């Protein structure tokens, strides 16, 4: 039996009976060296060792479903220049408590790619115990991206790292694109700890673009380096975007670091700059721009010079100045928990934090930190406190305004009710006196002024569009008076004497002139509908009626027909005159006919087409005793006499001087007996 297996078996027998067995340790197989080739593919449990042994001999290394043995680094740190490394399938690692790393890649002009669907799964749950690197099991770090020069890493998907995921050190000209680090399973039971996304040190010209990090520690921590950019990223579950802690290392210089267009959500912190107390170094030209914060539990922004193994420990120092810090375009309104702090700044002196820019920063929702020290004037915690006081004052004033508006609304409603009651009382009193004191003859004279309409247009609903002129004078609600269609409550008997309403309604029908378009059956419907509840139809009262007809219809379905019109069929004109004969004898009837002609020839043609339809109806009405008037094109009015059909067209169109050339006047021939000019 293999020695490792004996040791594992002995340990398991010695463990308590109820303890869960430790994950098995997989031994490393012997590796075969691949001779120089353009492309080399490695897979299975021997793939890691073979790839490590053969890395200098291959221009392209394909790692397909490699199972890395326990305690072994997938070591690609001696790659030849211009080598491409491609991960395919699922790469796994055996379990062992050790420091790692599980993966190491180094070299010059190296290209690392993840094939579609490829996953590097460390299965960190086997190590997670809630203690991270501070005790418990010894946990291996995952990916040492060290000493990569002019290289790129693209589309890697990393899952469940035991502790820190990606360590970038000694790199120059490294670009990482579309990397996903998903340690979100460590949230369960808070077992994942110190699972930093990117730890960057002693590197320059490093860009991380479009990364997604789900973890339980810093999304990014720049401990030293120059020209570092993290942009278009998503950080969730961890400690946000951090500088440092800086201090206590061989390199303690951070210069020109940019965090741009990132989202930080469900995290302990948003922005954090940590300078260790008692150490020396520099933090210069750090920029946070266009950062969105969501659901931050502790600090929206924390800039401190008193980090000592934890945040805000002791008195801030001055050994690591924070200069030329830019914080701008931060969106975090309401993002901080009420138990957290919006912004915390602790500087050791007025000269250790200088040259800051703080613009368009909205971080709210939490408390105001009461112990900010030596803050540059552009960012004073006291200014934040003043701003919070202003917001509280505005909120209080808004609440007061809301209360006043509420009280005013109640008072307005009560006032409207009182006015309405007064209107009812006054209207009823007036109409009662009117009915009691004025004889019918005088009342009729009054009604003529109150309800007679010179022109009352009847639409398809045949409702009155005019409100009661009596109650108009008393109603407080003018807008309602203007917009409400008849019948309306102003005719209600709560306002006026019922008999007054009845007489007013009778006079309305008897004296008003009702105007109709060419709606089919509309005249008959109006004349036979007892709309006002009189007990009999309006046709017994109506004596003035006008029908307005057009030879042209405008059809919106056709652009040409809409603009220029099309002749109406005779049936349409005939239908418009239905019900005309239901008027009482002696009624005044006016028929207006519009040709909408553009020239005399067109006028003649349109009128000739309508003539056989219009005049038989009008002749019957005239013989029934109606006083008929005919109006042509809104210019010329005639009263019908005698035989209206015989010779009408010739007399109308062939008479000399019938129309003046400018259309401004009319002179009828003396022999035009069927038509003579009509004037009121």
From TrEMBL:
Keywords: Cell wall biogenesis/degradation, Disulfide bond, Glycosidase, Hydrolase, Repeat, Secreted, Signal. It is found in: Secreted. PROSITE patterns: POLYGALACTURONASE. Its EC number is 3.2.1.15. GO terms for cellular component: extracellular region. It catalyses: (1,4-alpha-D-galacturonosyl)n+m + H2O = (1,4-alpha-D-galacturonosyl)n + (1,4-alpha-D-galacturonosyl)m. GO terms for molecular function: polygalacturonase activity. Its main location: secreted. SUPFAM superfamilies: Pectin lyase-like. GO terms for biological process: cell wall organization; pectin catabolic process. Belongs to the glycosyl hydrolase 28 family. This is endo-polygalacturonase.
């Amino acid at each position: 039996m293999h020695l490792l297996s004996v040791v594992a078996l002995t340990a398991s027998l010695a463990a308590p009976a109820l303890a869960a067995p430790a994950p098995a340790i997989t031994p490393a197989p012997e590796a075969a060296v691949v001779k120089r080739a353009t492309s080399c593919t490695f897979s299975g449990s021997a793939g890691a060792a073979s790839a490590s042994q053969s890395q200098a001999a291959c221009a392209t290394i394909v790692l397909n479903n490699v199972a890395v043995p326990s305690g072994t680094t997938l070591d690609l740190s001696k790659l030849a220049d211009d080598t491409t490394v491609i991960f395919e399938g699922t790469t796994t690692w055996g379990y062992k408590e050790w420091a790692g790393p599980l993966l190491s890649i180094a070299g010059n002009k190296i290209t690392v790619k993840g094939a579609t669907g490829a996953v590097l799964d460390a299965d960190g749950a086997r190590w997670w115990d809630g203690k991270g690197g501070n005790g418990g099991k010894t946990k291996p770090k995952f990916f040492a991206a060290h000493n990569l020069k002019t290289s790129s890493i693209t589309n890697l998907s990393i899952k469940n790292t035991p502790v820190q995921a990606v360590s970038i050190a000694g790199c120059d000209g490294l670009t990482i694109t579309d990397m996903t680090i998903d340690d979100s399973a460590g949230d369960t039971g808070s077992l994942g700890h110190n699972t930093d996304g990117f730890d960057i040190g002693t590197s320059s010209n490093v860009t991380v673009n479009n990364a997604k990090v789900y973890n339980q520690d810093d999304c990014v921590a720049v401990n030293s380096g120059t020209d570092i950019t993290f942009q278009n990223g998503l950080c969730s579950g961890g400690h946000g975007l951090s500088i440092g802690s800086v201090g206590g290392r061989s390199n303690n210089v951070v210069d020109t670091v940019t965090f741009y267009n990132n989202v930080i959500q469900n995290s302990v912190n948003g922005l954090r700059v940590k300078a260790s107390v008692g150490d020396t170094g520099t933090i210069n030209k750090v920029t946070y721009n266009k950062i969105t914060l969501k659901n931050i539990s502790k600090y929206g922004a924390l800039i401190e010079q008193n980090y000592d193994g934890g945040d805000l420990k002791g008195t801030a120092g001055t050994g690591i100045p924070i200069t030329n810090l830019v914080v701008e375009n931060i969106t975090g309104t309401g993002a901080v928990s009420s138990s957290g702090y919006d912004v915390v700044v602790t500087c050791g002196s007025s000269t250790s934090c200088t040259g800051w820019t703080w613009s368009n920063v909205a971080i709210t929702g939490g408390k105001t930190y009461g112990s900010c020290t030596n803050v540059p004037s552009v960012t004073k915690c006291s200014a934040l406190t003043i701003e919070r006081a202003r917001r509280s004052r505005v909120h209080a004033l808004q609440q007061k305004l809301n209360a006043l508006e509420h009280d005013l609304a109640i008072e307005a409603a009560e006032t409207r009710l009182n006015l309405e009651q007064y209107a009812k009382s006054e209207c009823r009193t007036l109409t009662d006196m009117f009915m009691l004191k004025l004889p019918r003859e005088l009342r009729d004279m009054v009604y003529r002024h109150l309800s007679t309409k010179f022109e009352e247009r009847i639409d398809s609903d045949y409702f009155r569009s005019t409100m009661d002129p009596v109650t108009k004078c008393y109603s407080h609600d003018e807008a309602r008076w203007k917009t409400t269609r008849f019948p309306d409550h102003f005719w209600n008997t709560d306002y006026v004497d019922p008999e007054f309403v009845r007489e007013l309604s009778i006079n309305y029908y008897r004296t008003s002139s009702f105007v109709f378009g060419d709606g089919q059956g509309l005249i008959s419907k109006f004349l036979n509908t007892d709309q006002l509840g009189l007990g009999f139809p309006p046709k017994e009262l109506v004596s003035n009626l006008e029908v307005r007809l057009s030879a042209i219809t405008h059809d919106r379905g056709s652009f040409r027909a809409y603009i220029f019109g099309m002749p109406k069929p005779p049936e349409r004109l005939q239908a418009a005159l239905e019900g005309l004969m239901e008027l009482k004898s002696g009624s005044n009837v006016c028929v207006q006919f519009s040709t909408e002609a553009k020239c005399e020839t067109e006028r003649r043609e349109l009128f000739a087409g309508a003539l056989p339809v219009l005049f038989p109806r009008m002749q019957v009405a005239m013989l029934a005793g109606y006083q008929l008037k005919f109006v042509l094109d809104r210019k010329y009015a005639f009263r019908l006499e005698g035989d209206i059909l015989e010779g009408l067209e010739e007399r109308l169109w062939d008479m000399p001087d019938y129309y003046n050339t400018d259309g401004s006047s009319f002179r009828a021939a003396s022999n035009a007996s069927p038509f003579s000019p009509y004037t009121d």
